[in-house]
């Protein structure tokens, strides 16, 4: 594995300052930029480790605290091991913050995140890659649709909801996407049923978006998150392989 170097950074947005984690290969050179979008539990050590793993593939990775309007990370107190069945109050704390992060606010924030990456001397010129987890997968779709001229590839893992009845459902925005998409759904996930997956795939196909979607059979919602009860090592390793393959073919000359 390539050695990486990570630091805490601040990213100024139109609404304030987002605390973030920046990690890249320790060679001191410039590398393609990647934006990692958190899951619902927020910026924490396990997500920093995930960002390091992506950086080890040869990328400069920015992982912002999407909840920065509610305070610096950790915004809520989290146990070292998250088992929602044992700690249901965690969801009661994070759901209001998830609802507060509207598409309009996300557009504003993501513009700042992409600007920050583009201005960093640690990032090569060119479009960025995006990957998101759980709620972050939904935001990854929106990012690719909102900034088609700045996003070369977007990925999402155990995401949801990607298909809803609302006007701002992510699947309704995909007509703007010009980059390549990869989405991996958990086989055991009420957030993305077979019907939802079918509707999402149809929207991508109808829009002519280059994409591949897969269902990781037997995996549960959250399978990439190493500090949760949903973590599944084999599915997580598959996610890294597919994600780095996507970025390698889209972000490198």
Automatic annotation (TrEMBL):
Its EC number is 3.1.-.-. The keyword tRNA processing does not apply. It is an enzyme of class 3 (hydrolase). One of its GO terms (molecular function) is hydrolase activity. SUPFAM superfamilies: alpha/beta-Hydrolases. Gene3D superfamilies: alpha/beta hydrolase. It comes from the Bacteria. Coiled coil: none annotated. Pfam families: DLH. InterPro entries: AB_hydrolase_fold (IPR029058), Dienelactn_hydro (IPR002925), Dienelactone_hydrolase-like (IPR051049). Residues 19-249 form the Dienelactone hydrolase domain. Keywords: Hydrolase. Signal peptide: none annotated. PANTHER family: CARBOXYMETHYLENEBUTENOLIDASE HOMOLOG, CARBOXYMETHYLENEBUTENOLIDASE-RELATED. This is Dienelactone hydrolase family protein. It comes from Nocardia aobensis.
